Amino acid sequence: MVVQQYRDGGGARAVRALAVAGVIAVTAGCFGGDGESGASDGSGRRSVVADRPLDLLGQAADILVEAGGAETRTSMETAAGGTRVTIRAQGAYDFRRQMGRLKVVLPEDAAGADGHRSITELLAPGALYMKNRGAGVPDDKWVRVDTTTLKDGNLLTGGVTDPMAAAELLRGAADVTYAGKSELAGVTVRHYRGVADLGRAARAASPQSRGALAAAAKGFSKDAVPFDAYLDEEGRLRKVRHRFTFSADSRAPEVSVVSTLLLYGFGLPVTVTLPDEDSLYTGEIRQG
Q: pTM of the entire structure?
């Protein structure tokens, strides 16, 4: 049983607890085009120039499924009370199976003496597995969390926004504007700004993602999630930044968290083996 004992005296501590504890108790507009027209380039690759931004963003998750696996880097940042906390992760994700493996690095002082020890996380539909969890969990055991029971749907809990969930959120996009072309790691990308609605995204999401996003739609203090998305010439999501707002309870102040996902190395074979039942920790998890 996972015991949740969330206590918060400030936003920075909230996000530290979020990553260290592994479980946090958080409770159609106008669409501009880029002014270009286009057609197939004859290579057989997807051409996105002529599409409307809303269509592109709504298809982003499906295009990632076509791409298969990818390498990923993430960051999750908040600032409160003059303190900025950033949690970083790196790994790989299989969009077809909706499974990934990441190493999450906690910020200095986020977990006391173990502040720089990385946490291994396995992402799967409806589940989050964590190793090196700390707080009395044996080193050889995994903690499993049912993400459909989390009030944030695992958009924040593990210190990483599940890459598929980040893409599925764009299905709820509205008020989208085109912000121009730029270059990202040597790749030409198109930048779109907008606001995603959690409820709309949950209803349009794939069956594997729907439960977690529906939980987030109920649990977040605001359904509106502002975002910046960067798509390459083939419509693949290369970068997305979401700004989430939540409150631990009705008495706590709202906290804003900026979650950024980078994707590259598309086509990478990704192997994720989930732990068996004997490898799971079933005892009480202590939280500081």
A: 0.80
Enter the DSSP assignment of 51: S
Q: How many CB atoms lie within 10 A of CB 28?
A: 10
Query: What is the full DSSP assignment across 79-141?
Result: EETTEEEEEEEEEEEETTTTEEEEEEEPPTTSSGGGTT--EEEEEETTEEEEES--TT--TT-
Residues of the chain with pLDDT under 50: 1-45, 47-49, 110-114, 288
According to DSSP, the residues that pair with 190 across neighbouring strands are 181, 231
Separation of alpha carbons 90 and 73, rounded Å? 4
Tokens of 24: 């946090």
Q: Any residues with CB less than 8 A from the CB of 4 and at least 6 apart, and which?
A: 21, 23, 24, 25, 287
Q: Which residue has the tokens 């963003």?
A: 57
Give the Cα separation of 56 and 278 in Å (integer).
43
Annotate 176-220 with DSSP letters as a single string: EEEEEEEEETTEEEEEEEEEEEHHHHHHHS-HHHHHHHHHHHHHS
Indicate if the alpha-carbon torsion angle 166, 170, 173, 175 is positive or negative. positive
